[in-house]
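Task: encode each sequence below as structure tokens.

Item 1
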Amino acid sequence: MADGKTPSAAAGGSVKERTLASLPDLSRAENRVAHALLAEYPLAGLETVARFAARAATSGPTILRFIGRIGFSSYAEFQDALRAEVQIQLQSPLARYPAPPPTSDGRDVIRDVAHALRLNMEQLAAGTQRQDFGAVCNRLADPARSVLCLGGRFSWLIATYLFQYLRELRPGVRVVRDMTAAWADDLVDMRAGDVLVVFDFRRYQRDVLDFTRGARALGAEVVLITDLWHSPIAAYADTVIPCSVVLPTAFDSGVGGLAIVELLVAGVVERLGPAARDRIAALEDVRKSTNLGS
């Protein structure tokens, strides 16, 4: 290209996005650097060149070549970008709490928030990779695979939303409850080929990451629903579906995660076809005959 940058760098985006986009074009040694960065993101990239090189089992010059490949002119510039991302990711609701309105009339909250939500939905529709989405729907509709849904402090509610739908459509679906002391009970039942659907948004939780790493070690396939900055779980995921969570208020939006759930459920219904209809009919018969859920 005319500016001398790689295609991924020219496209911009976070360091993680640039790294993921560059993977097909990297040399073997540079690929080790990329995966070392993704495995301990962003901490690995905030170390010295020597420590980062040791982590990736490569040399300092290879680290610097990798940095150049993803569009940075120096290691300092690369680290500045990582620090800026960390600052955004770790913003607390208090840090984002809106300032008092300049006048007593305030602002039109409904208009501003609705506008942000609409932009988020448009970005989700435009940015979701159809091939990845279809592959996830195929996994979730496969009766040979058990499905486990997991979320964090707030995103556990979204994970439960997916669970409630899927268990209407097929057997073998569970949700990881919100008491971490019992999480090992769910992990021990995972088998190779099972699907773990994880919802993890900024202020990412270490316990959610640890559970996912354990599931991956047992051979589970990981589907990650996350924000545009990507949870560290992305390094262990087979498929990542990102969504925008930005709102002009103190808290991030959960609407993107809910929308992805409803898109996935629609895709699963299509793939299951008559089997889903028959299961729903059977559930209705059981509810009527037992007076449960009526």
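Item 2
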Amino acid sequence: MASTVGAEVTLLSRLPGGVNGGAVRVQLGGTTPAVLKAVPRAHDHHLDETLRAQRVAEHMRRHGYPTPAWLGVGATATHVWHLMELVDAAPASALTPSLIEQLMEIIELQAGQASEPYDHWSYAWRVATGQEIPTDGSAVGETPEQSGLRRSIAGLAGHSPAVSVLVERVRLLCADAPPPRDAPDMVHADLATPNNVLVRGGAVVAVVDIGNAGSGTRATDLTALAWYTFQDPLLDGVRRRLWARTLDLVGWEGTAVLAAAHILHMLEIPIRGGRQKVVPAVVGRGHRALDELNALR
């Protein structure tokens, strides 16, 4: 790390948040605070994907997007790491109506800012419809993580009768949805996780964990926020605004595809992790989301 960033790197303490990979506070050159995230290598292209995320962060920062600067990226034989500037703010403990409204404004900064060929929009369509990647080279390939998730999602229906019913409902809802024609926007892809939203005095000052960012439609991030709002009745009002904005951006079929793909991902996570107790609640929330969408048709 020291050779990459040109300064001594001193480990200081673990930071809150960092659910997936963990975050550590460090000091560069004895004076500059920074954040280190290091995760085990998942596949041969892991470093390339992290470098892609760095390029997305740099591109978006030039357009006023509130994400910290990346100070260095590298890898060892076993891990991939990146250093970014430390923002003097705390992770949100939960997303309130005010924070979600602010995030909706931040998401508008993503409009037309696709800079890397990593298409979350087409991937969501394949997940929702059960389609495979064309073998004629007409589609951008998936990352290893996306391919693994899509294969795992394909087997969800065998988990239980209740899950099977929801999966079948999702497939029928999206059966005739056409594939997206373009992917014009930057997509954060994890903006609804409260720990990824840094706040100070009730204001969002930064969004972090941009490692899975790519291209697509910014409605992807709005859909993830809409899913989050089902946790609290106080968020019902802001969810109506999220649905309305998503419908404006991608229409009803596009909104259904994004919602369906998100529901399937939210099912896959606890099932893969063996957290069977939460699956019925996810199934119930999935049906509720689809009911609301059908009412908006």
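Check on item 2: The mean pLDDT is 93. The chain is about 45% helix and 15% strand.
End of task.
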